[in-house]
Amino acid sequence: MKNITIAIDGFSSTGKSTLAKQLAKHLGYIYVDTGAMYRAIALFAMQNGYVSKDFLDKESLVNSLPSIKLHFQFNADLGFAEMYLNEVNVEKEIRTIEVSSFVSKIAEISEVRAKLVEQQQEMGKNKAIVMDGRDIGTVVFPDAELKIFMTASPETRAQRRFDELEAKGDVVTYEEVLTNVQERDYIDTHRDDSPLVMADDAIEIDNSYLTREEQFDTVLELVEEIINI
Q: What share of the chain is helix, strand, coil (3-state, %, to 5)?
């Protein structure tokens, strides 16, 4: 079997990371959550007062980029790699609704995207990788052997995200989460630099009514068709 690159793009809260983790574990591939990288930079911007609801100090953030160190570290107990920002584990902090409300604004910044895309391409230079995000199949790995584009209705995605946050003990409302999902959709699809679009050769999967198992089985069949050629 040959090693391939699997690119999974799509809207927020479509379960990209869940699917990518399942595939990586099954195949023995490296998994990279690019969304976590953008979230980490959004957290850094929040911590340093570079971003708020009505304010974004783009210049200060861009000037700080050389001092931002990101890396993933595998957690054997959890079964996946966690995000570290300047040597500090921020996996929990980057999953909050507050970070979610700023991450798309941060991801619009071309200098941020350039820094992270370079790192992502380096991570995947030897293939045998599953990477999920917004521009993996269009920008990071345009030559990926398999490209998946995941979607679901905003209402379905908001309910999933709401349930996830509530289970973690976060105090949020469904309406708040739905608004966040819709705002992120708009920003992700309308930004000038690397907007969220489906690659011409990507396979679209609407998982509004699919279980995780059904989704995994569908994509694994696509993977096996390619790696067994």
A: 50, 20, 30
Q: How far is CA 62 from CA 4, 15, 58, 103, 117, in A?
A: 33, 30, 6, 15, 15
pLDDT for the residue numbered 201: 97
Supply 128's token pair.
């045998």
Beta-bridge partner residues of 117: none
Greatest CA separation for the chain = 52
Q: Tell me the β-bridge partners of 204.
A: 149
Identify the sign of the CA torsion 223, 36, 82, 211.
Answer: negative
Nearest C-alpha neighbor of 17 from the set 159, 226, 225, 207: 207
β-sheet with 203-206: strand ranges across: 30-33, 129-133, 5-10, 146-151, 203-206
Helices (H), the chain: 16-27, 34-47, 58-64, 97-107, 110-123, 154-167, 174-190, 212-227
Taking the C-alpha atoms of residue 224 and residue 229, their distance in angstroms, rounded to an integer, is 8
**Mean pLDDT computed over 81-94:** 95
Average pLDDT value over all residues in the chain: 94
| This prediction's pTM | 0.85
Burial 43-58 (b: 16+ CB within 10 A, else e): bbbbeeebbeeeebeb
- For residue range 95-137, what is the model confidence (pLDDT) as tens digits? 999 999 999 999 999 999 999 999 999 999 999 999 999 999 9
What is the DSSP secondary structure assignment for residue 20, as one 8-state letter?
Answer: H
